[in-house]
Each structure stands twice: as structure tokens, then as C-alpha cells.
Amino acid sequence: MSVQIRIQDNRKEIKEHGDYAFPVNVCVETIQQYEQGRFLWHWHPEIELTWIMSGEMEYRVNDSVYYLKEGEGLFGNSNTLHSGYQVDKKNCSYLSVTFHPRFLYGYESSILQTKYVDFITGNDGWASLKLEKDVGWQREVIDQMKMIYGLTPEKTVDYELRVHILLLEIWQKFYHYFHALPEQSRQPPNSLQRLRDIIGYLQEHYDQNVSLEDVAGQVNICKSECCRFFKKHMNMTIMEYLMYLRIQNSLPLLRCGESITRTAQMTGFSSSAYYGQIFKRYMKCTPREYRARKSVSRPEI
Predict the structure, then answer these.
(1) What pTM was computed for the model?
(2) CA dihedral in degrees (274, 272, 33, 41; nearest 10)?
């Protein structure tokens, strides 16, 4: 059964990436396991490393778009907004290594935190970095991710220690790279917070009657500039994104057997007929057909 990332109203992912004792999660995923071959915009305090094992994927981090192919990777910084999409309706298998920054530095205010970790995680301008196979140090990072993957199935007696060592070696390479960048690159982009505010507002109010004027008012710009800005960074209009959010949030309700009329009302649609029209555009089937496939239906109310 297809799944979708669960998020809070502020877009934070509802998922434990490891636990307090070992805040690391290593897993293999496929893009087609998610509804519509994409996972929702979300963020988490953990750092995420991605290695494409097969296929390719469009990966978005804040206002950057990456097309990742087999063998390539991506560094995603702490607290960054990110989402992923299948390319040409083909599947993509990828390794995700997600870990909390404190796993690197151990205890608060240590020099490992203040000098080496906060230097990178505290800069919104360094939200992500594509890892290329033909760049020496980046290829080494990918190889070390493969080593972590190779450790995972058996979990040897010193598994946690070996993962820790490999992640520290990877972080050392990132530190040298970012430390060598010009001073001006260390300033976060001014547009980042504006994009976060717009997406946050839409995700918190998708079930209400949202107008373009409402959205523009949240970031204190005119309606036309707001629409242009969003389309530039997201490659879709505000209303397209709003419809996508509404459909995505309606899917769990249908799977639980909620009525189509009630589902439409709960996700911001003016009528069940309009909901059905938009649903079919995105899901290539009717809400009734989807619910029949995904859940045990109950009588329509």
C-alpha cells in the first residue's frame, strides 16, 4: 500500500529517526512507495544524506531543485524543507541516512558543536549540496555511505561505533568544503524565509477558504509578486499547490472509510463534485475507486 509522510501543522515530520541513545536511521526507500510518486514537503532537525541506488529522482530542498541519477547523492542540512518526486513515472531506489547533529558532537557547547557542527547547521544558505561521482571528496562521501549501508544488515558487534566513525569522517569533509567557501556565501538567502512562510500558511489553512490575497498578506507583498515568486521557486502555482495539499490530506480520510462528502468538506473543497473532479485529475481514479482499493468501505453518509 502506498504511504505518505506524516507531518504536523508546522510541516515537521512525525517520525522518530533513531532514538535518544542512537539518533541515526538508515533505510532503503523507493519513490513509488509514496502516493503519486512523491513525498510531501517537510522538515526535521536531523541531517539527511541520500544516495541514489537505482533510477533517478527530482529532489527539492528549500528553493533548490536537483535531478539525482544513479550513483549520485545529496546532503540535506538540518531543518531544511524538502520533497521528492519520481521522474517520467519511473521508480527510484535510494538510501537515506538520517542523524541528529548531537550524534556528531556529543554534549552541548562542546567545541565539536560550536566550531564544527553549528558552523554548517546554523547557516540557511548551506541547505543542501549535490554529491557528484566525479568530484573526488564527494565520491568518497558516497563510498562511505555505501559502507554504512553494508554495515546495516548484519549490525556487527561494533555497529554503532563504526557508523559514528564514518559519519564523523563524512562531516569532516563537509566542514573543509564549506569552510573554504567565500565569506559572502555564508549569508542565508533573503527569499528562504518568505518561501517557508507561504508553504507554512498553505499547509496550516488548506482546509479553509484561502485566497491569493490571504497568502500575499502573510509575506507582505502584492498578489502578483507573490504568485510570481512562488511559481519561480516551486514550479507550480499557489492554487496548484493548494489543490495538491488538499488531495494529499484527503487520502488518509478515504483510507479510514470516511464518506466522500465529509472528506471533501474536511479538506477545503466547496462540494463533493468538485472534489471528485480534482481528485481524478491528480489520482487518475475517482475517490470511490480509491477508497475501495485502499480500505474497507463503510456506507456513504
Answers:
(1) 0.70
(2) 60
Task: Say if CB 244 and CB 282 are below 8 A apart.
Answer: yes
What cell was used for 152?
546495516
- How far, in Å, CA of 275 to CA of 286, rounded? 9
**Alpha carbon of 41 to those of 20, 30, 65: distances in Å?**
25, 17, 13
- What pLDDT digit, counting tens, does each position of 124-153 carry? 788 999 999 999 999 999 999 999 999 976
State the virtual CA torsion across 241, 232, 32, 132 in degrees, nearest 10: -160
Q: What domains sit in the chain, N to C, each tagged with a CATH number?
A: 24-186 (2.60.120.280), 191-294 (1.10.10.60)
At 247-282, the pLDDT tens digits run: 988 988 998 889 999 999 999 999 999 999 999 988
Query: If you search the block for the grid coordinates 481528485, which residue do you land on?
Result: 279
State the cell numbers at 66.
536537483
